[in-house]
């Protein structure tokens, strides 16, 4: 199968690229520089330019590109960059797919569980409405931007992703060196729920979305049982065999992270109802297993159905 992929240099995109190629799929990568390889196709998400000729013949498109939510302090300028990289990029890609003579059969657009905002200790599935705050509003706009693909009859799935457990990158990647150095600890009071997913399971779930015709609309990519930050802290301490004695008070987080601290301290107990109902099986459903898998330099790429 010929598959187009954005965000191929990121944590999730690079792992998905390896998995797809291991199964013999032809992957074309959308890049923002002048293409220098046969598998590269130019696009500019902010200027909303896509080389549609390079998408011809693609049966599936996976869109994972976007500026990192936790990469910088949320200044007004960086919030614009976060929005533009997601909303404008998704709109450009969806419009390009709709304009093709033969659109792909499936469009998987990566979004985030930030859509739900604060959920407290309430188990939250895909039927829940959007929450409040910058990330929730961003996720709503992000998903709405895919409307042209939907109107063109392309099966569109929104992969609402939780915290991906891997030492190779992402938010969790910053935790491993801190805990190894004995500097780990709970954040705030530690009672907030974290909706996590092992990188291996995340890639397998994306492959499942590509292969499963009945899956469309929002699909939560999180492990079945979210855990509190206190439980995460204890599990990291056990797996890495280091004490976790240095809690970070909420005021210190707000001083260091600004507005983003509110999302770090927010509780999100999000569950993957649609994935489970469709028969998906997690390799690392428990947080301790996910942390053990995430500390390894590499995990065998999950295989698809062909």
Secondary-structure blueprint of this entry?
Blueprint: E1 2-6, H1 11-22, E2 26-31, E3 40-44, E4 49-50, E5 60-63, H2 76-99, E6 106-112, H3 134-144, H4 147-151, E7 155-161, E8 163-165, H5 170-173, H6 175-180, E9 193-194, E10 196-198, H7 199-211, E11 217-221, E12 227-228, H8 229-240, H9 250-257, H10 261-265, H11 273-277, H12 287-295
Parallel strand pairs: 1-2, 1-5, 2-3, 5-6, 6-7, 7-11, 8-10
Antiparallel strand pairs: 3-4, 9-12
Helix pairs in contact: 1-7, 2-3, 8-12
Task: Summarize this structure briefly.
Helix content is 37%, strand content 17%.
Task: Give a verbal description of the structure.
This protein is of the alpha/beta class. It has a single domain, classed as Rossmann fold, CATH 3.40.50.720. Helices cover 37% and strands 17% of the residues. The chain has 12 helices and 12 strands. The strands form 3 sheets. The chain has an 8-stranded mixed sheet with strand order 4-3-2-1-5-6-7-11, with helices on both faces. Strands 8-10 form a two-stranded parallel ribbon. It has a two-stranded antiparallel sheet with strand order 9-12. The longest helix is centred in the N-terminal third of the chain and has 24 residues, at 76-99. It starts with a strand and ends in an 11-residue tail after the last helix. The model has no long low-confidence stretch (mean pLDDT 92).
């Amino acid at each position: 199968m010929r598959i187009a992929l954005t965000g191929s240099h990121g944590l999730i995109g690079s792992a998905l690229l390896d998995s797809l190629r291991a199964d013999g799929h032809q992957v074309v990568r959308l890049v923002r520089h002048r293409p220098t390889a046969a598998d590269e196709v130019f696009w500019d998400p902010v200027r909303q330019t896509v080389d549609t000729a390079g998408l011809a013949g693609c049966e599936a498109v996976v869109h994972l590109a976007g500026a990192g939510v936790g990469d910088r302090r949320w200044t007004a300028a960086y919030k614009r960059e976060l929005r533009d990289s997601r909303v404008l990029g998704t709109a450009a890609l969806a419009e390009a797919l709709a304009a093709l003579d033969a659109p792909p059969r499936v469009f998987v657009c990566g979004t985030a569980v930030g859509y739900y905002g604060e959920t407290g200790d309430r188990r939250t599935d895909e039927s829940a409405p959007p929450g409040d705050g910058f990330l929730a509003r961003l996720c709503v706009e992000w998903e709405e931007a895919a409307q042209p693909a939907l109107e063109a009859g392309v099966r569109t799935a929104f992969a609402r992703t939780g915290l991906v457990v891997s030492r190779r990158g992402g938010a969790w990647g910053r935790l491993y060196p801190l805990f190894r150095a004995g500097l780990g600890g709970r954040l705030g009071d530690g009672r907030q729920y974290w909706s996590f997913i092992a990188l291996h399971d995340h890639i397998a779930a994306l492959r499942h979305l590509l292969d499963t015709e009945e899956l469309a609309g929002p699909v939560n990519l999180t492990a079945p049982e979210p855990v509190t930050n206190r439980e995460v802290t204890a599990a990291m301490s056990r797996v890495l065999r280091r004490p976790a004695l240095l809690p970070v008070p909420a005021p210190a987080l707000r001083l260091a992270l600004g507005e983003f601290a509110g999302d770090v301290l927010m509780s999100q107990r999000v569950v993957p109802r649609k994935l489970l109902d469709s028969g998906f099986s997690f390799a690392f459903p428990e947080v301790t297993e996910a942390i053990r898998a995430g500390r390894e330099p590499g995990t065998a790429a999950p295989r698809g159905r062909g």
